[in-house]
């Protein structure tokens, strides 16, 4: 589980799943604005699936790390502003 918590959720922001959970959990912002705190990216589609799903999980209080991991693996990096 610790390994999944430390996995980077979106390469744009270099934030781990654990950090994203902390950001989403401590913010009362809607998804679009809270996402920018995690990614520092303005692309609407960037890492959308894992981030939106994690946001919903944090709000419901039930985190499924395996599902988030699967969604991260399916990210289309062409939609992101990956630092290089």
Placed side by side, the strands forming the largest sheet appear as 1-2
By DSSP, the count of extended strands is 2
Low-confidence stretches: none
| Helix/strand order | HEEHHHH
Rg is 11 Å
Helix/strand/pairing class, anyone? mainly alpha
Beta strand % = 5-15%
| Helical coverage, percent range | 40-55%
Mean pLDDT: 87
Count up the helices.
5
| Total number of domains | 1
What coarse outline follows from CA principal-axis ratios? globular
Distance between the termini: 28 Å
* Biggest beta sheet attributes: 2 strands, antiparallel
Brief synopsis:
This protein is mainly α and 84 residues long. It has 5 helices and 2 strands, in the order H-E-E-H-H-H-H. A hairpin with a 4-residue loop joins strand 1 and strand 2.
């Amino acid at each position: 589980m610790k390994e999944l918590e430390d996995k980077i959720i979106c390469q744009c922001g270099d934030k781990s799943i654990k950090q994203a959970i902390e950001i989403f959990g401590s913010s009362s912002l809607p998804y679009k604005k809270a996402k920018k705190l995690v990614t520092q990216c303005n692309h609407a589609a960037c890492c959308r699936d894992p981030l939106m799903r994690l946001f919903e999980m944090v709000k419901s209080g039930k985190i499924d790390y395996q599902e988030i991991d699967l969604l991260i693996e399916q990210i289309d990096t062409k939609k992101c502003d990956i630092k290089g």
